[in-house]
Amino acid sequence: MYWCVGLKRGNVVQIDATLVRCVASRFAPSFQGDRAVDRSCVKLYCREAGFRASVFFVALLIAAGVAVAQEAASPEPLVFRLEHVPDEFSVHLYIDTETTEVAFKQEPEYEGSVITRGAIFLGSDPEDFIGFACDHAAHKLYVDKNGNLDLTDDPDNVYTSIDSFFLEFEGIRLQRNTEAGVLPYVLNVEIFSFGFSAVYCTAIITSGWRGTVELGGTERIFAVVDNGDGMITNDDEFVFGPTDTLEFANWDEHVPASQRLFLNGHAYDLSFEFEEEDLVVTAAASSEPMGTLNLEGEHIARLILAGSDNAFTILADSLEREMAVPAGIYDHQELYLLAEGGDTAFYTRAAHEITVREGAQAALAMGGPLRNSLTYRRAGRTLTFSHEFLGVGGETYDPVGVRRPAPQVVVYRDGKQIASGAFEYG
């Protein structure tokens, strides 16, 4: 913090300039002397106060140093408790019905002859899965909840689909033994096939942990959706709800989870701890090497960047054309563009590699203004049109929000209109 050379009359005392400014502003009447400021240090030439004055000044420096250290200390970490909710999210899990053979030791008596057996994988461990069997004729799904490969000894493990063609099994509740303890999860499973073709299966985690937090200077809904392994990693997802200034129903998109978050100019190191059925999130402010990201497009209302190798997940809904962001490699981009009037947004997702280096500039060639792209394909007497919205980097955008009137098409021959109509949705 500071150092002194001698304490005798006429000797030089060198100390940190911040402390001198603090002492000078608080205790100036108590000490007489010439003050000469030279960049980061201050030289005090003691004239008349002598040894006692020097000792007194050093004591004041110590007191001021304590005060400055307290003022410069990092803020206390923010702690949020997120409550478990069973059915508000949609995170897809990998299902294997072909390469992974699930040989159950005991199975129920099925009503039909077409049985689909498969594995729902949870987390990144190939040995961590939930086995199931689907009786297509009975529209029933049997789930091996306790993982012992016996489908007959699990309580409440049989689910029935109302639809006979597109089989939907909802509200499958699991109690998973993880490193973090026993945690609750809720799944939906969808199974369908076309005749004798392959069977298609999808598993969706609908449960997660949600709460209201104040991060990045704004209060918002924040949720965490775990993939079933009890560890919050890049394989999981965050959900950030709309803010007061950006209310838009579709802006609760899932964002790749990370233990490092950069939210509207604020950097946080995140840690997670499960307490019974709740998830406690601790957000500690961090200081990171920064670079500059130049946004070449316009009308960007929300930007999401993510990457691997301990990169930050960046979410910004308060943007400028030049943004200071943590240095790193980002290979996941999501953008929302807001149309004039605010009732329609356009969304895109891309996987370009963007490298932001410390103290350097990088460019993001995405965003508006959008241009219309219309292509057509002819098959006999039929013309098939394809319409796209393209951004400044050639990326394709999907409109979300309020549905506008269907586009019109008019066909001319030799300057004379010969046909017209409107596109159909779908």
Describe the structure.
The protein folds into 4 domains: 12-72, no CATH class; 90-205, no CATH class; 209-364, no CATH class; 371-422, no CATH class. The longest helix has 23 residues, at 50-72. Residues 1-73 and 244-251 have low confidence and may be disordered. It has 2 helices and 34 strands. Strand 18 (260-263) and strand 19 form a beta hairpin. It is mostly beta strands. Helix 1 packs across helix 2. The protein is flat, with a radius of gyration of 31 Å. Helices cover 8% and strands 49% of the residues.
Would you kindly provide a brief summary of this structure?
By secondary structure, the protein is mostly beta strands.
Number of helices: 2
Low-confidence spans: 1-73, 244-251
Q: What is the general shape?
A: flat
Residues in helix, % = under 10%
Query: What number is the mean pLDDT?
Result: 78
Order of strands, main sheet, comes to 17-16-15-14-4-20-19-18-23-22-26-27-32-31-30
Radius of gyration: 31 Å
Q: What's the story with the biggest beta sheet? A: 15 strands, mixed
> Gap between N and C termini, in Å?
68 Å
* Tally of separate domains: 4
Structural class: mainly beta
Amount of beta strand:
over 45%
Q: Care to count the β-strands?
A: 34
